[in-house]
Every structure is written in structure tokens, then in C-alpha cells.
Specification:
- Helix content is about 50%, strand content about 10%.
- It contains seven helices and three strands, in the order ααααβααββα.
- The chain has a three-stranded antiparallel β-sheet, sandwiched between helices.
Length: about 140
Amino acid sequence: MTRRDRCHREQATLFALMESAPTHPIAPPRSGQLVRATDPATSEAAAERLVRSGAHRSNLLDALALVRQNPGRTAYELDAIDEANSGNVRDKTDRRISRRLSELADKAAPEIFRGKKRDCHEKGSPCATWWPIEMYDQITRNSQ
């Protein structure tokens, strides 16, 4: 059984995810998982608000949808697409999408994965690309 097959069994499709949002496998983290031990207490309070308000989960779902709609983009490019889609001009430090990418990739059943680095159109320097897990076999096979 391939990694892709295992992941397909373990995760819902994007459409099922939208229909059954409350039962999605993205469980809310404890706020302590969003902050480092060396971060100030204000960061922990902010993380607790993010989780309690549902914004953290919403950001995870938005990040997953953006990667699926725009495979092979860098984190900075995904942030720019998110800003353009929202119609709001956000502060460049508002990286709500890129901050969630590693969480989606580093789970026991990852939903996305890091691809090869390439020059980022937003940053102008090499950055990792992000791909939906459904494309894992196709991307890794082509890079060999």
C-alpha cells in the first residue's frame, strides 16, 4: 500500500471536509503546542484566544484548501494569494496561512508535504514548495 493510499483512507476529501467540518480530523491543539517554552506569557494568551475562537482551525482549513488549489507554491506565494482572495490589504507580517503549513505537514497523517525549493516570486530567494499529499507519488516520482 502506498503512502498516498494510506493517507486517502485516513483523511476526508476537501468536499467532505466542508460538509462535515465539526468531525474533521484536524483536532484543536492545546494552546501550549502553538507557543515555545521561551515565548512570553502574552503569546500563550494569544494562542489560547486563537484556539478558543476557532480561528486556528479555520486557518488550518484555509491553508489546506489553498495548497490544494495552488500546488507547488511557496509559503510567501500562498500568503499573497490569500491576501488577494480576501480583498483586504493585510500587514506583511500577517502570515496566517504560512504559519499553519508545517502543522499540516508534520502530523502523523500529513495532509500536505514540502517539495523542492525554488526561487519564490514574492520573496526573491529559494523557498520550499508545498503540495497536497494526494500528489506525493507523482511529485516524488518525477524528481528522481
